[in-house]
Automatic annotation (TrEMBL):
One of its GO terms (biological process) is tRNA transcription by RNA polymerase III. It comes from Upupa epops. The lineage of its organism: Eukaryota, Metazoa, Chordata, Craniata, Vertebrata. Signal peptide: none annotated. Residues 146-169 are annotated as: Disordered. This is RPC5 polymerase.
Length: 697
């Protein structure tokens, strides 16, 4: 209290915050000015700046008429820099050192606590500084003088040599191919001094206009240092509580944060992770963990997270394998990247890893040699694939890392079905790329069973089989009793309403009895929305309820029509693959998920104006029956319909034809000479070329 009484308040000054020059005001700190240098000499001064680096270069005039100026020394410096000849590139055009260059450097990295103040009529106006730059003399002209000196010496040495000297001897050079750059090497290169210097040199200079102290433009700009409005709305930053004002004057020290160890750039804490969008959280988690059950993922995302949204996001970055989610290959190996071991591009790595993931959808065990033999990748890449999702077992192979998640499969059958369809599409692509045999496509049940080295006696096996039979018998008995009770309740309800039912009598054919098993078998034998049996006699009318027939037929017809308009010729195998991919893109509960048999799909193809082309394939072909069935759009409604029909007739007689035969046949049947472009158009629609021969797609 005594100190406050001894130090009374003499005057109160209003403080205003000026915003007009915010992020535009710099403070230049000049060195001690020589007597011969005039800062206000505008005629001989220029300036340029690099805004991103906050780097400034100023050229200031030197008063050569000042008695303190040494003229002989100035002439000598100009002669050393520019030589005897003067042109536009000369540094000193007057053959005299008449200017000095100053280059800036940042005086402080954080200038948020500094401001420029102007006091006027009892008011203090503050403008925050955007940067504080210290200007120091630049001696680049000395480097230019040294370069000129070396050029003169080289010219003198070259002049002394004989004019009859033979040409330079041919020198052997060694060509080296650089290895693909890894991510760690790229980060080291980006942080290197040479790279930073190169980046700084790439930024272009922006030339500035200099205005003197007494110039009208300078006077106009100085007015922006005053606050334009004195209202409280313009200076809300200055209306603070005492504690907030004290915090602004003396902010907490950041030294403790700087001293803390910095985490790697690829590591995020859970607190940082939960600030990101849900899709990014799931992508980062799956990219780091590689394999995860859905329950674990929900626990990591925190309470209150919508499981439906998580399911929607997880399908974009992961695939379902044995009820667990495995990160997709293109997430781990983005486009335009390569293997750190072999330099193989990302596309090939993704195919190889997809093959490993697909193998684990078929069996819990995978053999490394088999994967390497099929994918033709180096052992290091194959080992990386397997380590992502499995564990090595001695004398057994690689076992999938996590147990089968039966709970997720039971709770989300629609997700399981959609993922199964996606795997069928991937399997079809892998079959074409790797020419997979049947032994690769079927899971090895016997080998997986024999992989267990446990010795079980015959009596133990019998007891185990009896226990399984008793368990299954009890479950079947309960289900049978439940179905029997449901049937009785349905019968009683039917008898109560039988008086209100009018039965329409129709003649019944003895040759074609009524099929009552259509609805019972609706959910049996369906693989990815398609019935596996070839000789299915189901039709749309007997397979679906009456109101659903038209919707299913319309959806199926729309798919078939659009598909054949894009690809005029398709095998049944390829059509089924495209249909499975179409089903995978549909929302859950769509009408096409009810089950479409091969027979129904083929009938719809014929109903949409397509024809089956009986291509005479060789008897020793290894193609499947579905690949031997070829369908083509007979009339597309364009000018090339007749040409395509002639081409299809040609392939109904031979499965491969030469181009000259096709062109002559087209000219003969169509009655006109077709040019090369027209023939190429017809061949591109229906055929592919291999080894000089043309085949149907």
């Amino acid at each position: 209290m005594a100190n406050e009484e001894d130090d009374p308040i003499i005057q109160e000054i209003d403080v205003f915050l000026a915003r007009s020059l915010l992020e535009k005001l710099y403070l230049f700190q000049y060195p001690i000015r020589p007597a011969s240098m005039t800062y206000d000499d505008v005629t001989h001064l220029s300036a340029k700046i690099k805004p991103k680096q906050q780097k400034v270069e100023l050229e200031m005039a030197i008063d050569t008429l000042n008695p303190n100026y040494c003229r002989s020394k100035g002439e000598q410096i100009a002669l050393n820099v520019d030589g005897t000849c003067t042109d536009e590139t000369s540094t000193y055009s007057s053959k005299l050192m008449d200017k000095q260059t100053f280059c800036s450097s940042q005086a402080a990295s954080n200038v948020s606590r500094y401001a420029a103040a102007v006091y006027k009529k009892g008011e203090l106006h503050l403008t925050p500084l955007h940067g504080i730059l210290q200007l120091r003399p630049s001696f680049t002209y000395l480097d230019k003088a040294d370069a000129k000196h070396r050029e003169r010496e080289a010219a003198n040495e070259g002049g002394d040599s004989s004019q009859d000297e033979a040409e330079d001897d041919v020198k052997q050079i060694t060509v080296r191919f650089s290895r693909p750059e890894t991510e760690q090497a790229r980060q080291r290169r980006v942080q290197s001094y040479e790279f930073l210097q190169k980046r700084q040199a790439e930024e272009h200079w922006v030339h500035l206009h200099y205005y003197g102290l007494k110039d009208s433009r300078s006077e106009h700009e100085r007015q922006y240092l005053f606050s334009q409005g004195h209202g409280l709305a313009e200076n809300t930053e200055l209306i603070k509580s005492p504690s907030e004002y004290l915090m602004m004057l003396m902010p907490p020290s950041v030294e403790e944060e700087i001293d803390k160890p910095v985490a790697p750039s690829n590591v995020l804490s859970m607190a940082q992770l939960r600030t990101l969008p849900l899709a990014d959280q799931i992508k980062i988690l799956m990219k780091n963990v590689k394999v995860m059950p859905f329950a674990n993922l929900m626990s990591l995302l925190g309470s209150g997270t919508d499981s439906t949204a998580v399911l929607r996001c997880i399908q974009q970055v992961a695939m379902l394998v044995q009820g667990n989610w495995v990160v997709k290959s293109d997430v781990l190996y983005p486009k335009d990247t390569s293997s750190p071991h072999s330099g193989v591009p990302a596309e090939v790595l993704c195919r190889g890893r997809d093959f490993v993931m697909w193998k684990f959808t078929q069996d819990r065990w995978v053999v490394r040699k088999e994967v390497a033999a099929v994918t033709k990748l180096c052992p290091e890449d194959v080992k990386d694939f397997l380590e992502h999702m499995s564990v090595a077992r001695i004398n057994k192979g690689w076992e999938f890392m996590l147990p089968y998640d039966e709970d997720f499969v039971k709770k989300h059958p629609d997700i399981v079905q959609r993922q199964h369809m996606l795997w069928m599409g991937i399997q079809a692509k892998l079959e074409k790329v790797y020419n997979l045999l049947k032994e690769h496509l079927t899971p090895k049940k016997q080998e997986s069973q024999s992989a267990h080295p446990l010795l079980v006696s015959g009596e133990q096996r019998v007891n185990m089989a009896k226990a399984k039979v008793r368990q299954k018998y009890g479950q079947l008995e309960k289900e049978f009793q439940k179905q029997k009770a449901d049937m009785k309740s349905n019968d009683t309800s039917a008898k109560m309403d039988v008086s209100n039912i009018c039965i329409k009598e129709e003649p019944v054919s003895d040759e074609e009895p009524m099929d009552t098993s259509a609805y019972e078998g609706m959910n049996n034998g369906i693989v990815n929305g398609l019935h596996a049996e070839e000789d299915s006699t189901d039709s749309l009318n007997s397979h679906f309820p009456g109101g659903c027939v038209d919707r299913v037929a319309q959806e199926l017809k729309a798919f078939v029509s659009s598909t054949f308009k894009k690809q005029f010729v398709l095998t049944l195998s390829e059509l089924k693959r495209l249909f499975n991919l179409h089903l995978a893109s549909l929302p859950p509960g769509h009408t096409l998920f009810s089950g479409i048999s091969d027979k129904m799909l083929q009938d719809m193809v014929l109903d949409t104006g397509c024809k089956q082309i009986l291509v005479p394939f060789p008897p020793q072909t290894a193609a499947s029956p579905d690949e031997l069935k070829v369908y083509a759009l007979w009339e597309a409604g364009d000018t090339y319909d007749q040409h395509r029909q002639v081409l299809l007739e040609i392939f109904s007689k031979n499965y491969r034809v030469r181009r000259n035969v096709i062109q002559s046949q087209l000219s003969q049947e169509c009655g006109e000479d077709l040019n090369k472009q027209e023939v190429d158009r017809v061949l591109k629609d229906c055929c592919v070329s291999y080894g000089g021969m043309w085949y149907l797609k």
